Amino acid sequence: MQAWQVHQLGEPSEVMRLQDVERPVPGDGQVLLKVRAANINFPDALMCRGHYQVRPPLPFTPGVEICGETEDGRRVLANPALPYGGFAEYAVADAAALLPAPDALDDAEAAALHIGYQTGWFGLHRRAGLEAGETLLVHAAAGGVGSAAVQLGKAAGATVIGVVGGAGKAAVARELGCDVVVDRHAEDVIAAVKEATGGRGADVIYDPVGGEAYTQSTKVVAFEGRIVVVGFAGGTIPAPALNHALVKNYSILGLHWGLYNTKNPKLIQHCHEQLTELAARGAVKPLVSERVPLAGAAAAVQRVADGVTTGRIAVLPSLADGASA
């Protein structure tokens, strides 16, 4: 079979190589899956660089979420067991963690209803307790993680403010349903959010960026507001001033979605049921901005690493080389 492999660490476009390799052999409790679609996540780029908390042994195949097909023909969602990741024709995954792919979504959309939407659901509902009528601010609202949070916030009855970088991403955020869109390249984020909320600020802030975005969050969080920290795509990990949280009476909530796999896996199943229901009634629909063949995976991972994409890019091994959708 064909699979992308990383033999040394560095930029994805430089270290990912498409090679002919043997199909992986499932271990105890694992299953072999034919990859129908693999979505690109920022951690894929971080793993190529050696900057992610999970460091699979070299060589490894990136790709942390897929829609796959079991030997008996079932469509399932899975997080491949590294080093046999999803940017390949076949991957392996833990049998106990497989989730049924929603019938309402195609393969690429189904794959995208996993990590980003699970993270959004746990962050907004389990951790922050977002309620209808509250104001939600989402940083990087046009990205893969942010777009999921925007849709989940709207589905929950919140007023959603999306912060983006650039006019193109602003247009995407509006299409996603943001009530207010702030282009950080052209506007003062703090002033714009205060104006949009009548000076009150946002009740819940969803931050996959870190750095300056987190600093802005602390200045626009409402009384008894909650800042949910889900990642540091901006490259800088902030050092919160706890005296500021005390004086302004807000909460800083960390979210590591992967921990639920070991600490409380039943919640992941419950979350998937909620997401499947939302997808069935059209309340959420993953934004898949591009579908590329297997041969295009390395270039696509690099674009995600460079922060120039919107929504999700899906790698479809069955798509003919040179084609995209």
Architecture overview:
With 325 residues, this protein is an alpha/beta fold. It is built from twelve helices and 15 strands. The strands form three sheets. Strands 3, 4, 5, 6, 7, 14 and 15 form a seven-stranded mixed beta sheet that branches. Strands 10-9-8-11-12-13 form a six-stranded parallel beta sheet, sandwiched between helices. A two-stranded antiparallel sheet has the order 1-2. The two termini are 23 Å apart. The model has no long low-confidence stretch (mean pLDDT 96).
Give the structure's gist in a few sentences:
The protein is 33% helix and 25% strand. The protein contains twelve helices and 15 strands.
List keywords for this structure.
single chain, 325 residues, alpha/beta, six-stranded parallel β-sheet, globular
Set down the secondary structure blueprint.
Blueprint: E1 2-6, H1 12-15, E2 16-20, E3 30-39, H2 42-49, E4 65-69, E5 75-78, E6 90-94, E7 99-100, H3 107-112, H4 115-127, E8 135-139, H5 144-155, E9 159-164, H6 167-176, E10 180-183, H7 189-196, E11 202-207, H8 212-220, E12 221-229, H9 242-248, E13 251-254, H10 260-263, H11 265-280, E14 288-293, H12 297-305, E15 312-316
Parallel strand pairs: 8-9, 8-11, 9-10, 11-12, 12-13, 14-15
Antiparallel strand pairs: 1-2, 3-4, 3-6, 3-15, 4-5, 5-7
Helix pairs in contact: 2-12, 4-5, 4-11, 7-8
